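Sequence only, no structure available. Ideas?
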Amino acid sequence: MVLYFLIIFFIISPFFPATRNPHWFFRTADFIRLQSLLIQLILLGLLFYFEEEFTTFSWILAAALLGSALYQFVKVFPYSFLYPRRKPKENSDGHVSILAGNVLQTNDCYSKFIDEVNRFSPDLVLVMESNKAWENGLASLEKDYPVTVKVPLENFYGMHLYSKKKLQNVEVKYQIEDDKPSIFFDYYTHNNSPIFFCCLHPAPPSPSENETSKERDAELMVTGKTIRNINKPTVVCGDMNDVVWSRTTRLFKKMTGMIDPRVGRGFFSTFHANYFFLRFPLDHLFHTRDLYVGEMVRSKNFGSDHFAMYYEIHHKRKVETPKNPKLNGDEKEEVDELVEEGKQNT
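Reply:
I predicted one. Tokens follow.
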């Protein structure tokens, strides 16, 4: 009976996010698709091992479990290294590199994170969950990164940005929640138009954070609307507290036409750094089609519950920023509803 119960639960639970219920209980299934896919295969094996005589009910369970597993496989497969990857031609006319990491506010391994910065030597360093202690702990970076944007907070949503050269049009915005900042700026590479950066860290749906995903979803949609109103090469990066195969993130990518460089390269699961089986790809970078990502590397463990990600972003030579993708009426309505629900929930 226990085996039957587990099989039925894992047949149904992968479809919870399809209900569009924003409560964390229904959204959790999106986060654990890789883990639950493995559990489904184990349960299928156990069913064949322990079932002495297959009945019609047994075959229905096996078929439904396999179908649910295939549903999950289709969702996650594009982000594996086995998926065919379209490699861009080397036609860069300028690039910028960034190391983005959620350092965990209570983590005090400042030197280990600085070692990762020195290892990659990026043009930009984005630090999330940074408070005053982290600001002081990273003070030595300012020798090589004299341009800074500092938003130290004690609520696990502080944010610091370090740059080797001057930034333009820097804005710290609180798009949805008054205590969850985002950083926006223009970065000029060698000879082209500026690259517009949106650095985000919305709160996740969880029992200890926001009960629903409404605020997080709204921040992604508001950022998407901002991107649709500008005509610049654009990068969105940070700890999104969402997985790339979720409906919300897929809608965000569709409304902006942005590319996920993870496709065909691997999952690059960044959380939880200390538990191999409980890892999800929560830290992301998306870019417009006039850019491409060359090198993409996950950092070493530096004491946080997240790994950091290093990206080398190139501007394509003689490629204009593409026009906004068209959204149908239902998609436009969904975007507006997500924004409105997020604002009402704050």
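The chain has a mean pLDDT of 93.
Hope that gets you unstuck.
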